[in-house]
Amino acid sequence: MRHLHSDELIDLAEGTRLESSAPHLRSCEACRGQLTELRAMMSAAAQAEVPEPSPLFWEHFSARVRDAVAADGGRRRSALFGLFGWSWSSVLMPLSVGGCAAVLVAAALMFNSRYMPELTTPPSVSSGPAASIADAAPMAEWADDPSLDMVADLAAQVDWEAAGESGIGLRAHEDVSEKAVNQLSDGERRELGRLLREELSHSTN
Amino acid sequence: MGESLAWTLPGTWQPDWQPKVVRRDTVNKTGDLAFAELGEPALVEACLSGCPGAFDVIVERHRRAVYQLCYRFVGNHEDASDLSQDVFLRAYRGLRSFRGHSSLATWLYRIGVNVCLNRVSVKTPRTESIDERPHVDTRNESASDRMLRDERAARVRAAIADLPRKQRATLILRMYHEMSHQEIADVLGSSVGAVKANFFHALGNLKKLLGDEVF
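YS: structure for the whole thing
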């Protein structure tokens, strides 16, 4: 005689299998007893409800999850940068400062190539007043150039002290600036110096 | 109303567009669409595309079931609350891995079971205090009957919390979350036969733990 297996008893207890399909039950008191116990325990378990928390708990719970998700998002972003020992401020500040410096140098170079091609050879002293007026005309045009205004605005927004403290980006761009300046002719250097002095006087005023 | 306003003065310009009317009740406080009306796949999609309100709706829909699952594992409100929060946090992190092969509820239960089993393995579940017992409608019940029923329920919950891990998980998912044997097998990474055997032994052990006290 083979007793009913555990999965057969579970199917019978849950009602997914009819008792009539297990003729062994009629002749085996042990299996009948087991089936009765299983049903009784299922009934007892079904009545053990979980205490319902206060209605306020659910609102509080949703807020907690929302905060945890938000905090987790922030931590994960920080951890990603933490892998490289960076933070947003230490990365973005030098980049923005360096970017502004590069734009300034590029603008100065563009200005030289567009408006002062003759400066590659120093202007002769004998060119006279007429030549001075002709040289001054592009300067007036430069003063109205909106792209250079934008460069000046960007430079004015840079926190140079903070950039100096963070260090990384400025050093990298000093090299770039040096290389660019080394390639300038004497006249271009003089003009760049004048422009920078002018910018500095604006920023200190 | 649209018809009554569809008059024009002779020669006046007519726009070639129709005004779009957005019902006020389909827009929530943050201006997002009402996620409560969306189905599960659309909600998950909305979450993944960065809509902050969509995950709130998922939490709202499943928080009670997840909390109850956790409560049955640990047997007290405080830990159940912490574990439920952890379940949703993990769900949020892993939402991209939800393929929709099972329902969102089943997926959350799977996370819940893992969270609870890991937690329970390092921390013995503590029994609930008398204050944590269920508050149900008892207007048609005598005080002594109510007390008796509450005590029985608390004993059963405590006994369930003392079951071996897989037996406990199987019994909880089968009895209280109405999951099929196959779904439980998927959650626990076992077979249907193993699930039935676990359920059988869980009920047998429950009988041993409770003795005759609940009958």
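YS: worth flagging: The longest helix of chain A spans residues 55-82.
IM: good catch. Also Chain A is about 75% helix and 0% strand.
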